From TrEMBL:
A molecular function GO annotation: hydrolase activity, acting on ester bonds
The organism's taxonomic lineage, starting at the top: Eukaryota, Metazoa, Ecdysozoa, Arthropoda, Hexapoda
Membrane spanning stretches: 422-442
Stated name of the protein: Partial AB-hydrolase lipase domain-containing protein
Gene of this entry: HaOG200573
Active site (catalytic residues): S172, D342, H372
InterPro entries in UniProt: AB_hydrolase_fold, AB_hydrolase_lipase, Lipase_euk
Recorded family membership: Belongs to the AB hydrolase superfamily. Lipase family.
Residues making up the signal peptide according to the UniProt record: 1-17
Coiled coil: none
Alphabetical UniProt keywords: Glycoprotein, Hydrolase, Lipid degradation, Lipid metabolism, Membrane, Signal, Transmembrane, Transmembrane helix
Domain called Partial AB-hydrolase lipase: residue spans: 32-91
Superkingdom of source: Eukaryota
Length: 443
């Protein structure tokens, strides 16, 4: 496993472009430029949520060689994990990057960016850099992302592409927010053809991460202390400039985490370092409350709404304890991908979520050492995960299409081996209309 991670590091540092040049480094703000450098034609779209957050989406409508430009190609929406951004799906270059593989398979790919990360750090009225307004701006957890961001982006994609349904893929927190949306707003199940969740963190009765499990015991106290010290955001945009002159990597990581040397210990208390799998410069940012919400669920061994305190819970939920997210309300076809070496999602919790959803199945990755972030970081994720996802989306998309000349949602079958073709189905429909007309005349 160590050798595999070393190989990944070498590849990430020196991915070679088709013209022989070393692939340069692009910042989190240069995702579109990186996509163009890799030979694709990206688009940038902006979506405003009902509560005023302005989200940036990145679209890759065609493959590298535009091999499928048909209007009926599958439309896929991909959502990143905690402290992530759309750029995380393209860091391995054209051959191995998750969304590039989807685009090259002929899909119309849309990547979202959750509120508060560096690509979606905007609001119609609130300034995240204002010392007063930042408290309101960053007063959200993964629930608001699931209740407002994801639905707004889905509706935008449906309207823009003139589709009735799309496919959804969520990695880590991208899976969490789907579980929130599909259980709290069950009408959105009808807008999805298929759903693939890559290590979706939901149930946490058997949370495997020992360090985070210990830190979670003090979640509410740590979060309250952070708020009193004005800490509401992880990895703010100016975090590098705010901590000049620091050379030790551990001290630098913690200081950049909250943009402060004085309060850098907060990252250790929350266990943020154990969530960081790459260089701190690459972190897209998040609200500290997102970490706090996960911490509460780890501590309480529940998957439920944010715990404000007994009195505030009564006001918010009309009960003193936060309600559970009811996964039995999720009816969309879900495939839950999981692995045995995931330090944020235990196999038992993954299987329990599948059992509680109405139309879900589990799929264990065929490498026991596969890690939580390997879905987008490991070179062999293509053969272990991505190829399967592509094949399943193609099958689901074809099954969801109406047959030409009919109003059916799937191809009608005459017997076990013969399908009605488009021409044949049109003939059958015409005969049916003639018979119906004669019946009306006779009657």
């Amino acid at each position: 496993m160590v050798l595999g991670r070393l190989l990944l590091g070498v590849v990430l540092c020196a991915v070679v472009a088709s013209d022989g040049d070393v692939r340069p480094r692009f910042s989190i703000y240069e995702t579109v430029e990186l996509i163009k450098f890799d030979g694709y034609q990206p688009e940038t779209h902006h979506v405003t949520t009902p509560d005023g957050y302005i989200l940036e989406m990145h679209r890759i409508p065609y493959g590298r060689y535009a091999n499928n430009t048909s209007e009926d190609r599958p439309v896929v929406f991909v959502m990143h994990g905690l402290m992530g951004a759309s750029q995380g799906f393209i860091l391995l270059g054209p051959e191995y990057s998750f969304v590039y593989n989807l685009a090259d398979a002929g899909f119309d790919v849309w990547m979202g960016n959750a509120r508060g990360n560096k690509n979606s750090r905007f609001h119609v009225s609130l300034d995240p850099d204002d010392e007063e307004e930042k408290f309101q701006f960053f007063d959200f957890s993964f629930e608001e992302i699931g209740m407002y961001d994801v639905p707004a982006m889905i509706d935008y994609i449906l309207q823009y592409t003139r589709r009735d349904k799309i496919h959804y893929i969520g990695a880590s927190q991208g899976g969490t927010v789907f579980l929130v949306m599909a259980s709290m707003l069950p009408e959105y199940n009808e807008k999805l053809i298929s759903v693939h969740l890559l290590a979706a963190v939901g149930y946490q009765n058997n949370f495997p991460g020992a360090q985070l499990r210990r830190a979670a015991l003090m979640t509410d106290i740590i979060y309250s202390q952070a708020l009193r010290n004005g800490i509401v955001e992880l990895f703010p945009p100016n975090s590098v400039e705010m901590v000049p002159g620091i050379t030790p990597s551990r001290e630098l990581s913690n200081a950049r985490c909250v943009g402060s040397v004085e309060y850098s210990y907060m990252c250790e208390l929350f266990g943020v370092r154990s969530l960081m799998r790459n260089n701190p410069d690459d972190q897209a940012g998040a609200a500290l409350k997102q970490i706090a919400h996960y911490g509460q669920n780890i501590r309480d061994r529940q998957f439920r709404r944010y715990h404000h305190g007994r009195q505030a819970n009564q006001a918010a939920y009309n009960e003193t304890s936060p309600p559970l997210y009811d996964l039995s309300l999720i009816t969309a076809p879900v495939t839950m991908h999981y692995s045995l070496s995931d330090d944020l999602l235990d196999e038992r919790d993954a299987l329990a979520m599948v059992a509680d959803m109405r139309n879900a199945k589990a799929r264990k990755v065929a490498r026991d050492s596969f890690l939580h972030t390997d879905y987008v970081e490991a070179l062999d994720a293509k053969e272990l995960v991505t190829d399967y996802v592509i094949e399943e989306i193609i099958k689901a998309d074809l099954a969801a299409r109406p047959v030409e000349g009919t109003i059916a949602t799937a191809a009608p079958v005459i017997d076990n081996s013969t399908q009605v073709t488009g021409a044949a189905s049109t003939t059958v429909l015409n005969v049916y209309l003639v018979v119906l007309s004669l019946y009306v005349m006779i009657k």
